[in-house]
Amino acid sequence: MLRTVKPKNARSKRAMDAREPKEIEDPRTAIFVRGTHTGEVVTSVMKDLMALKRPNAISFSKKNVVRPFEDAASLDFWAQKNDASMFIVGQSTKKRPDGMVFARCYDGRVLDMCEVGVEKGGYKGLESFKTPKSTPGHKPMLHFASELFTTHPRFIQLKSILMDFFNGEVIDHICLPGLEHVISITLGPAPATLSGTEPTEDDTKSLPLVHIRAYTVRLLNSGTRVPRVELTEMGPSLDLRLRRTQAADAELWKQAMRRPKLKKTDVEKGLGKRKKNLEVDDMGDLRGRVHVGKQDLGRLQTRKMKGLKAGFDEDEDVHMSDGEGGDEEPSSRKKPRRAE
Question: What class is the 26-194+204-252 domain?
Answer without folding.
Answer: alpha beta
